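Record type: monomer structure entry
Structure origin: computed from sequence
Chain ID: A
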Amino acid sequence: MIFAKPDLVLLHPPSVYDFRELLTIPGPISDLIPSGPFFEMYPIGFSYLGEYLERSGINVRVVNLANRMLEKRGFDPARFLSRLRPRAFGIDLHWLPHCHGAIEVARLCKRLHPEVPVIMGGYSATIFSREILENHPEVDFVLRGDSTEEPLRQLMEAIMGGGDLSRVQNLSWRRPGGEVVENPLDHVPASLDHLGNNYIYMLRSAFKYGDVRALLAFRGWWDYPLTAVLTCRGCTRNCTFCGGSSYSMRGCFGRERVVFRSPERIARDVEIICRFTSAPIFIIGDLRQGGDDYATQVLEAVSHVAPRNHIVLELFEPAPRSYFDRLASCLPLFDLEISPESHDEEIRHAGGKRYSNEDLENNISWALDAGCKKFDVFFMIGLPGQTPQSVMETVEYCGYLLKSYGPLVNPLMGPLAPFLDPGSLAHDRRETFGYRVRFHTLEEYRRAMTQPHWRDMLSYETEWMSRQDIVDATYAALLELNRIKGTVGLVSPRHQERMDRMLRDSVALLKHLDDSAAIEEAEIRERELAKIREEALLLLDSSALPKEELTWPLTGRRFYFWNILRMVRSGI
């Protein structure tokens, strides 16, 4: 069977390229997201880029290199990439934890195909674009900004047809003598109508390029095919530690205001997803950012689809009671998330979230009364003003929420890790917020990602907690929260016991690592580190445990394969 040849191959790297060889003790830095400790989930923007370019006649193949390396230990990235013959490679450096893997994959592509240009893009690539081009000859181009569909089309046409690079919007590039040129960042679209049916593109791409693995967004996705629907680009909020906040979007990406997708397009995405899976659908972004009328229009449009899937929605701040009544009238199955960060209202306010515990608790009560099936409440460790004692008081507050509202409420905790986002308000005004930032260059972040102890990955400490304090407080909090969840029946006794063992094994292994690193005799030290590596690999098998607490129910089959075939054939 002959498959299409791609003009552009989009590669998603692991956070650390050689993670299969390096000693890495899994920590809780990725416990509150679907992907694992090597961040194998590719950004949703890949699917929009591919769909947009293919609509313009440019063949695009997505390859989740990170997931392939996780799935099969014998998978050889060099051998795989050597067989590809695209006109260009694209590598995402969206989230900063990929800084090591992204550069190393770029280096590998350039070694195997010296004549093929390598393009990098994403939030972090934008922030470090000049450093990337000055220090990494393996990267030829960086596309800056949060919406690079059209600039990428322009760049690919220039690559394929010998066009003028100076006319490509948002592009950073090198002249033949090595001078770095930064074209104006002037493509910041005020509409998202150019975004097409990204899931149809991904389904068709699997057949077009003979690569079903391209559909795997993260490890275990076949068993739990969670999907997401984009509602906007930009943010109306100013969480001080977030690199995607309103402050960061203006300062780093040229976006002065949020742009929202139309309710009809959001509903269309939900409809398409419902045709091929019954897994939960995550709606990215608080619908109320666009105002109450916009949120109502989106919900009413989705209600006409009549989804049987669980619809998971975010709250960036508490909503009025009428919003939950609207959710109940439009969605048979809905779940909610909110991130108050701390039980302490002063600490919460310092982080940019200005609402009270009373507001939070009212929302929980109203949501459950309206029929919400699961309400996740996220708390964070490593905030301004937060001490180890304050962290444990947050755990007590989690217990209070569980006792007050029952097991439909799911409190979750994790560290602000591994990095304080460059470009965020707290990063730029670190002294004001009490942060001490340890890394300033991309290379420093890259070296940090290869450290075996997640304490040494942390890019910051605060006036109130050292990096070791953050580690200790995190494990103390997670152990106690796990105990509380077991006591109230939120998790099964078996799950509680396995989580407890995993957390205690992690603490013991990290202590063993520190003790071994202090051994002066090289031979003895290396022998102990080899033992630790074997134990770390066993511990990695337990890293899926925290994900169980993030899941929402399937309401039918994981996939409707006949529907997939019909959709691919008809191009719906």
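Annotation 1: Residues 493-517 form the longest helix (25 residues).
Annotation 2: The mean pLDDT is 95.
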